[in-house]
């Protein structure tokens, strides 16, 4: 395998909500030498939970699928789903399943923390974000309130990617990108925030060390996985930060990611602090910032509407005046954790295809509303939108984004951008380079360009009016 590669091999890992993907990549050229993927379950019931040990097993299975290439890797990086609460006992074993980012049960605890910490503006200015129900600090507060025995048994708190890095290296290490989604790491100081920790009832000694950008977490010490003992392990990062690395993003280039959740983000040079809570003021994995807005309801919600209508997801039809806000699992942007979906404007001549198109419109509208706040003037109004995630492959998603944004759209050919970003971080560590520059050298943003089309202002105004007028019905 080495003879076929221009440079050393690195492994990029994407441990997401429902599966773990691994790529073995040539560090010089970006060529993907091998890949693997293994699912892991998300528990049912009122919350969204996963056993962290399933992530570890899935990582092993995905690496095994990569064959001998994984055993030749010189460096590894793990990107993971953000915000998840992993609680470990004194022996390093999970106390209970991890609470995942899309678990909205901590909504009351989130509200209490925001009030106790001086209100939304104080949180935004100090921590960089207003800690909504997704944030780890709200999940820890929920655990203390509802499962005090589990909280008392917890000796260490980790994020999903931290858990995997620690099992790989034996070192308790995180990075500024993923740490910025906890609510207890302050973007103003670049350190854990004593006031937030006190409010949460959490000791800094229970948390991992925050590595500097470009710093290694350690080396592979676990013999359980098909990786070389002693290979470098990067600090890793959150999945959105890794996707930004995978695209080699420069400031001011907006990205829409259409997956289980929908996100809009861009690299920024100014530290974000949005007191409305719409924009999370994340740090990126390099030293800049990654303002981001996230919606809970994206491809899964639209696919559910398609299933209810008995139609293929691409079977949309233009026209009609129906409005559908597909908030099937509560919503984060706008912050309506208890919301249900809202359908308005049905007529006798409304067709199933128009209803499906209305679901797409509702999901895309929610993301685009947050775009101006995310960009905060750091991008031209006609800057192309980079479309990534599973939805980017669908014509209905792409055309809805073009019609409602009025911007040109770029769809990169490269898939698995989160795993590619992790690989770029591993390559940067190994070669002593900026990981975003590595990704640009690899040409990860090559793809199809779609020109701007006239914005559908009438549809936009219908959606905005329905969101405003239907507030009481949305049950937020």
Compose a concise summary of this entry.
With 476 residues, the protein is an alpha/beta fold. It contains 17 helices and 24 strands.
Question: What topology emerges from the helices and strands here?
Answer:
Elements: E1 9-15, E2 19-26, E3 32-39, E4 49-50, H1 52-65, E5 73-80, E6 86-88, E7 98-99, H2 107-116, H3 120-127, H4 136-146, H5 148-152, E8 156-158, H6 160-169, E9 173-175, H7 176-179, E10 185-186, E11 191-192, H8 194-200, E12 209-211, E13 216-219, E14 232-234, E15 237-238, H9 239-246, E16 255-258, E17 262-265, E18 280-283, E19 289-295, H10 299-309, E20 323-325, E21 342-344, H11 352-369, H12 371-375, E22 385-388, H13 395-405, E23 409-412, H14 417-431, H15 435-442, E24 447-450, H16 457-469, H17 471-474
Parallel strand pairs: 1-5, 5-14, 5-15, 9-12, 16-22, 22-23
Antiparallel strand pairs: 1-2, 2-3, 4-7, 6-8, 10-11, 13-14, 16-17, 17-19, 18-19, 20-21, 23-24
Structural notes for this entry:
The chain is α/β, with parallel strands linked by helices and 476 residues long. The strands form 7 sheets. Strands 1, 2, 3, 5, 13, 14 and 15 form a 7-stranded mixed beta sheet that branches. A 7-stranded mixed beta sheet has the order 18-19-17-16-22-23-24, with helices on both faces. It has a two-stranded antiparallel ribbon with strand order 4-7. Strand 10 and strand 11 form a beta hairpin. The longest helix is centred in the last third of the chain and has 18 residues, at 352-369. It is globular and about 65 Å long.
